[in-house]
Structures are given as C-alpha cells and as structure tokens.
Amino acid sequence: xxxxxxxxxxxxxxxxxxxxxxxxxxxxxxxxxxxxxxxxxxxxxxxxxxxxxxxxxxxxxxxxxxxxxxxxxxxxxxxxxxxxxxxxxxxxxxxxxxxxxxxxxxxxxxxxxxxxxxxxxxxxxxxxxxxxxxxxxxxxxxxxxxxxxxxxxxxxxxxxxxxxxxxxxxxxxxxxxxxxxxxxxxxxxxxxxxxxxxxxxxxxxxxxxxxxxxxxxxxxxxxxxxxxxxxxxxxxxxxxxxxxxxxxxxxxxxxxxxxxxxxxxxxxxxxxxxxxxx
Length: 278
Ligand SMILES: NC(=O)c1ccc[n+]([C@@H]2O[C@H](COP(=O)([O-])OP(=O)(O)OC[C@H]3O[C@@H](n4cnc5c(N)ncnc54)[C@H](OP(=O)(O)O)[C@@H]3O)[C@@H](O)[C@H]2O)c1
What we know:
Number of helices: 10
Mean pLDDT: 97
CATH superfamily of the domain at 2-152 and 182-209 and 251-265: NAD(P)-binding Rossmann-like Domain
Low-confidence stretches: none
Order of helices and strands: EHEHEHHEHEEHEEEHEEHEHH
CATH topology of the domain at 2-152 and 182-209 and 251-265: Rossmann fold
Strand content: 15-25%
Bound molecules: NADP nicotinamide-adenine-dinucleotide phosphate
Strand order of the largest sheet: 2-1-3-4-5-10
Shape: globular
CATH architecture of the domain at 2-152 and 182-209 and 251-265: 3-Layer(aba) Sandwich
Distance between the termini: 31 Å
C-alpha cells in the first residue's frame, strides 16, 4: 500500500518512517515538496503519486510561537489540514491526522478519554482543535490521533535539552505541576500501522502508558544516564511562558486497546530503549 506522509522531516516522521517502510511503500514529503496550505500543489501531488493513504504530520508546533503568530498558526494547523481533508475526500483517500493533548485544559483529575470535551488554553491547542473539527466535517471517515510529550531520535527534544543543561550548568530545574505520559516517537509506528490496516475512523488517544510530571520524567532520565546533579522541582509559573499548558494531560488509551488491539508499553520501558539506542 502506498502511504504519503506530510511533514516527514519532523520529530514524528523521522522516527516512524523507518518502521513503517517495512510494511508500506512510503512517499515522504515536507514543506519543500508540499506546503499543505497549497491546494493546487496538493492536487498535482496526489494525481502524480496516487497514494492509497495519507498521514498528515505537518504542523506549526512552536507552542509559544503560535501565540505571537496566530494567523500563521491558524493557516498551518487548521486551514492546511482542511485542505488535505478536501483533497482526500475528492480522491477517496483515507486520512490519518495528528493532533495533541493541548486541545484539553488539563483541569480534569483523571485520564482524558476521546469523549471528553476539549477546551484549549493556547493558540496552538485552539488551532489544532479547529483542524480536527474541520477534518471531521469535511472527511468524516478520517482518523485523528491525539499524541503527547513525544521524544525521539533526530534533532533536539526535551531529553537532549535537559541533559545538556545539566552537563553545562551542573544543575537542573524542572516543572513539577504538569502531568502527562512521555511517549517514544518510534512506539507510534505500530498503532499507526494497525490504524492504516483497519481504517477505523474516529479519534484515538495514543501515548506510552503510565504518567509523570516533567520533574519525575527528568529524574528517570538522569537515573538512566547516571547524571548526578542537583535537580529542583519548580512551579510552571516560574518559567513565564507565553502559552498556557494543560496541568494534567494524561490520556486514557483504552480505546486503541479495544479497537485495534494495541497496548502501549510503559513510558519507563520506552525511555530505557531510547537511551540504549542513542
Ligand atoms: N512533538 C510532540 O510532542 C507532539 C505532541 C502532540 C502532538 N503532536 C503533533 O504531531 C504532529 C507531528 O509533530 P512533530 O513533533 O513531528 O512536529 P515537527 O517536528 O514540528 O514537524 C512538523 C513538520 O511539518 C513541517 N511543516 C510545517 N509547516 C508545514 C506546511 N505548511 N506544509 C508542510 N509541512 C509543514 C515542518 O517543517 P519546518 O520544520 O520547516 O517548519 C516539520 O518538518 C503534529 O501534528 C503535532 O501537532 C506532536
């Protein structure tokens, strides 16, 4: 099966494409080949490549930058996905689109299910939610994957940043009032493969299992890497970031278990493998 992937050079694309390549014929494209806000380019590409499935990873993911550039965020995170959905509908191509835990406000006390009412607190979250809704309206057979706290190989991520700070300054301060599930990007490949094969439309929450705060995640990273520096828990208010983040963004992932038979391993197991592969 021919799978076209947009935004392929990003964190998720870089990590899932090697695994998906052994099951599918992948057409990896990024903004240089297809800017998803360009409908004409999209039409030409789909006519040319004739994909049987599209995975849309293209997005504006600079969460604080979205607060400053709201129009751009709306264009890439909402208008772009709507254009992709229109083209998929026109060419009868099933679509998997990626969304985020930032569609929620994080005020819940237990894990978020796919039925919970979104209430984004940031421009990033609001534009991603708008993208989800427009896709569902235009091409109701689409699959929307909400993911969170992703790390992986290639480029900078939370793990590389926090270890660099620890090594350069001999200490680290990390927020202890935001909870989620760190997710190894490579672990997304298997549920994606199953969703492509089953084609069951709807929203799916996917993350490694368990949960922690960023501080607890950092403690585990330092323990795996034998980094022995003072680590201080701090409130997120001290970071003075432009975009508000959800306080509690843990997903209930029972739907993927039920619908496609995928159980995600714990975030600690995934982290160990990631560190072992570095
Ligand atoms: N990373 C996370 O923790 C996380 C968590 C939850 C959900 N997600 C979602 O997962 C998806 C993939 O995330 P990611 O972490 O892989 O993001 P990423 O690393 O920022 O990659 C996104 C890719 O899309 C490209 N892009 C930007 N605008 C585009 C456009 N108009 N047309 C085509 N390509 C464009 C980017 O190019 P440039 O780099 O040149 O801009 C980049 O290569 C996104 O939908 C994101 O919202 C990510």
